[in-house]
Amino acid sequence: TTSSPGAEAPGTVVIDAVTKHYGDSTAVDRLSLTIEAGEFISLLGPSGCGKTTTLRMIAGFEEPDDGDIRVSGRSVLGVPPYRRDVNTVFQAYALFPHMSVAENVAYGLQQKRTPKAEIHDRVVDALDLAQMRRFADRKPTQLSGGQQQRVALARALVNRPSVLLLDEPLGALDRQLREEMQLELKLLQSRLGVTFVFVTHDQGEALSMSDRIAIMRSGRIEQLADADTVYARPASAYVAAFVGQQNFFSGTVVEGGTAVDSTHALVRGTSAGLPAGGTGLAAVRPEFVSIEADVAADASGAANTARGSLIGVSHLGETMQYLVRLGDDQSLIARRPSPEAPQLSVGDAVVCSWRAESVLLFPADDAA
Ligand code: ATP
């Protein structure tokens, strides 16, 4: 009988004030992050924010210029990748084309001179976990992209790492397969109890799988929280813009910091968040914006109301999306569940409105 590849206790990862420069540019900037044993954590952010560099330093492919990284309590600085208790799954699977699936998965263990019988058992286990056992004798070229990605996963799992690092592992897959694999990966992770550190620039992917999400900006973490918190209470306009979609209104902060007076709407929130008199940003998600035909056409300036002209209607499946032009410089997106979506046509005069509870207020931010 064989032990499960997840038998080893899940590891912790502590990134302690780590900095990494490339020439004059700072890829990672005094970043600190504590990852719990058995946690599924995602590093999320736009291209160039330092996600991959962070992952590569945990893996040992890069060394920090400053700071410390500890895996399960021990510093790994100076420890080569193959001696760290972590394994990486990359987007480019880099399978050996001339070897079978089973040989690809066995390769690392053979290099380590693991006994033959043990290699066999562990390869079977890893292929089972990745649901690839029936393809054991195929060559990578005889597999779909999703199947190749499963082999890459098996190749990492066969080492029974206590921490698995995943660098955009689903990036090359089409959307439907991607969503299937997201569910599978999440299930696999909870079954194995292995700590997962997952790098992605896809917010949907991060939201659907992670226990916690670290949203990165310019080599630092802007917010670290679970999906609900990041979505409902983003720490900054940058996070609000990156997770989900937002309609932003920029203007003068009024009413004691509870509202933003922009050209096309007075946007009022429920709490005083901003210093009065300065410039602020108010944000409302498209799913919180109601839309209807503007029959009254009275231009009264009620708060949290905007009038405009409908310039686009699109079916998104479960929802209908409406694009409204408020003025030359501003449009607004509203989204309604399809069963209750109003019948409107391009060119219609419309009025949009939202509740103060749905409004987020932020200081002005270049990145939003
Ligand atoms: P992506 O999603 O595009 O992979 P990322 O968030 O993973 O982006 P990194 O790859 O970590 O970002 O890169 C962070 C910064 O460091 C970028 O500005 C990048 O150009 C720079 N960088 C990364 N690797 C190197 C390198 N080997 N040499 C020089 N600069 C590098």
Structure description:
The protein has 368 residues and is α+β, with helices and mostly antiparallel strands. The protein folds into 2 domains: 13-237, 3-Layer(aba) Sandwich (Rossmann fold), CATH 3.40.50; 245-363, RNA polymerase II/Efflux pump adaptor protein, barrel-sandwich hybrid domain (OB fold (Dihydrolipoamide Acetyltransferase, E2P), Beta Barrel), CATH 2.40.50. 23% of the residues lie in helices and 33% in strands. The chain contains 8 helices and 20 strands. The protein has helices at residues 51-59, 101-111, 116-129, 145-157, 175-192, 203-209, 227-232, 237-242, and strands at residues 13-22, 25-35, 40-44, 66-71, 74-75, 86-89, 163-167, 195-200, 212-217, 220-225, 247-254, 259-261, 266-268, 279-284, 290-293, 305-315, 319-327, 330-337, 349-353, 360-363. The strands form 4 sheets. A 6-stranded mixed sheet has the order 6-7-8-3-9-10, with helices on both faces. Strand 9 (212-217) and strand 10 (220-225) form a beta hairpin. Helix 2 (101-111) crosses helix 3, helix 2 (101-111) packs parallel to helix 4 (145-157) and helix 3 packs across helix 4 (145-157). The radius of gyration is 25 Å and the shape is elongated. It starts with 12 loop residues before the first strand and ends in a 5-residue tail after the last strand. Residues 22, 25, 27, 45, 47-53, 201 line the site of adenosine-5'-triphosphate. It comes from Agromyces fucosus. GO terms for molecular function: ABC-type polyamine transporter activity; ATP binding; ATP hydrolysis activity.
